[in-house]
Give the backbone structure.
Amino acid sequence: MALAISTLIPFLRMAIDDNDPTGDYENADERLAQYLRFGIYASFSDWEQGYTVQLNETEYEISPDPPIWCQMLFVIKTAWMMRSFEQKYSYQIPAIKITRTSKAEDLDGLQKIYDSIIQERRYSCAGYSYNSFDDLFTRPNLILTEIEEGYR
């Protein structure tokens, strides 16, 4: 089963604050879908998880269907990339700029969320942890013992 990228567009709109209730959006859905593809590929470069993005008739899909946490990882990475491009390539007039936070703080917040998801999901899956590094023989012997007992 696959997940259509278009299902992530509303979440991306919320993440980049492009959610005008009248439907007058800054970015078209097609453009956001392209950004999401780019963000998904960038997430793969951070951590390869075995997902593919492919064109299925008229829209792109992620295969196999990723869990919710992974979908949000893709959205956050895409929002972070969009904000960083915006910060790097935009011109600002500080006298008329009215915001609660600067773009750098927004980027920092998105990056921290992304990093915490990566940390939680990538490193919390360890099944067995060795804690004895006293000599050069203890750890290999523990590993060999586990292999002999059929542990994986």
In short: The first strand starts at residue 3 and ends at 4. Residues 73 and 118 are 8 Å apart (CA to CA). The helical segments are 9-15, 29-46, 68-89, 103-123, 138-148. Residues 3-148 form one domain.
